[in-house]
Amino acid sequence: MNRRMLTKEEEATAGDEIEVRREDQDKINKFSRLHQRELNLEEELKLKNKEKEELEDISTELELADEDDKIPYKIGDAFFHVQLPQAQEMLLSSTSQVEEDVSVLEDKLGTVKDEMTQLKVELYARFGRSINLET
Q1: With contact defined as beta carbons under 8 Å apart, do 15 and 86 qualify?
Q2: 102 exposure class (CB count in 10 Å sphere: 0-12, 13-18, 19+)
Q3: What stretches of the chain show up as alpha helix (H) in DSSP?
Q4: Highest CATH level, class, for 35-130
Q5: Where along the chain do its domains lie?
Q6: What does the buried/exposed string (b/e) look like for 35-54 if buried means 16 or more CB atoms within 10 Å of the residue's CB?
Q7: Is pTM, for the whole model, over 0.85?
Q8: How far is Cα 90 from Cα 112, in angstroms, rounded to an integer?
């Protein structure tokens, strides 16, 4: 089998010959929506991971606190002074919730990436080089 590289003109001409069907356009649109969702999930995951790191830092700081100290703990927009054991318990609860949120976001992101990969396979099989789905 003798393969040769296509010139830019031949690629453009070859791309013009492929008819874009309604189902193809729907797949392209779905890929675009999934890509936008992927970006949003990645940003949200980044923020949750930062929050998780901050909670871990606070936990480390609380280990150094004196048992009798009152700890300012932020709830909503207000700070409340609570005993150290209560602050540690609340911090543990917050950390668990953030870890659960991270896990859910990672699962959603994995699902979106799987769907995008499947769409890439289908669209590249149909259009070859005449479509660019690299993100």
Answers
A1: no
A2: middle
A3: 8-17, 22-63, 84-127
A4: mainly alpha
A5: 35-130
A6: eebbeebeeebeebeebbee
A7: no
A8: 33
